[in-house]
Design a protein that fits this description.
Layout: H1 8-21, H2 26-42, H3 50-62, H4 68-85, H5 109-118, H6 121-131, H7 136-140, E1 147-148, E2 153-157, E3 160-163, H8 169-190, H9 194-203, H10 231-244, H11 253-266, H12 271-278, H13 287-292, H14 303-307
Antiparallel strand pairs: 1-2, 2-3
């Protein structure tokens, strides 16, 4: 029997907690909580039933201007809410799958080198991480605790490790200095103590936003004082660098990440190793890189081939 009690606040708190335990990204958590909030409001503040969730999704289907990706995200968010928060798994309709956009062109290695040379500051480091195998969101949401310079790696979460070559360590150490300056300014406004400074340091984003908080209030559920660099800032930097280097079409984060898989496969790295590096869930997800590779993928290359020496 439904009580009519407003459960919206409790639902959102529980949803955030379950998303944190599930290791979902900050952006995904914000989106899921938003959809759960809309569902609970649709139900008048009462605990939703499966039929009401279906009706809510059908209403989204009829709503003009809402893309299939947004509707699919809404369905995923509600499935998560029913299964993880209410402990009542439900079968919800999914929108028809849209056609995948054509893959971006894969830049040559020299073009990637030109691009990285044409970038500077945080956008250069983010682009390097994306070409190293991270998704753009994973790179931007990387925290200080995820940078392991002693081990020569970055750790975006879920036990994944992506190597970071030694020539880049100095640039990332300088970036840590940028983070430290931002953190001192933010904690100064908050009049924080030494203990809070240590806790905030490990949680701080490696690529902080240029503007700090207007008041000493922590953001979201994860406790950081300052948000991370906006994705559009990186995209604009890539566009400008591509134009300066006369790279056509302009390189995008998606194209850089695709180039990571293609170039590693072309160099003879095993597909399973490339898949783990890029955080792909299956070999099927690597199929596009296989199709775009410019050599027959028969196995590792001989060290003699890498010497460039002809007898």
């Amino acid at each position: 029997m439904r009580t009519g009690i407003d459960v919206s606040a409790h639902a959102l708190v529980r949803t955030r907690e379950e998303l944190r335990l599930a290791g979902r990204s900050v952006r995904t958590a914000e989106a899921y909580v938003g959809w759960v909030r809309r569902l609970v409001e649709h139900c008048g503040g009462s605990e939703p039933r499966a039929g009401e969730a279906v009706a809510f999704l059908e209403a989204l289907e009829r709503k003009s201007g809402l893309g299939s990706a947004s509707r699919a995200q809404a369905a995923s968010a509600l499935r998560f809410y029913f299964e993880r928060v209410l402990d009542r798994p439900v079968v919800l309709p999914s929108p028809p799958r849209r056609l995948s956009p054509p893959p971006p062109g894969v830049p040559a290695r020299q073009e990637v080198a030109w691009l990285l040379a044409g970038l500077s500051g945080a956008p250069r480091l983010v682009a390097a991480l994306v070409y190293g195998g991270l998704r753009l969101g994973e790179a931007l949401e990387l925290r200080v605790s995820g940078l392991d310079l002693e081990g020569g790696a970055v750790r975006p979460g879920n036990g994944r490790m992506v190597p970071l070559p030694a020539p880049w360590w100095g640039a990332f150490r300088r970036q840590l200095g940028v983070v430290a300056r931002c953190l001192r300014a933010d904690l100064g406004r908050a009049a924080a103590g030494e203990e809070e400074h240590e806790e905030s340091w490990s949680r701080a984003f490696l690529f902080p936003a240029s503007r700090g908080p207007s008041s000493p209030v922590r953001m979201g559920e994860t406790g950081e004082l300052r948000g991370h660099l906006h994705p559009r800032s990186v995209q604009r930097a890539l566009e400008r660098a591509s134009e300066r280097c006369e790279i056509l079409p302009p390189l995008t984060p998606r194209g850089l990440r695709l180039a990571c898989g293609v170039h590693l496969l072309e160099a003879g790295y095993p597909a399973a190793q490339v898949r783990r590096l890029m955080g792909l869930s299956s070999d099927r997800a690597l199929a596009r890189c296989r199709r775009l590779a410019r050599r027959e993928l028969t196995g590792p290359r001989s060290p003699l081939e890498l010497l460039g020496f002809e007898p």
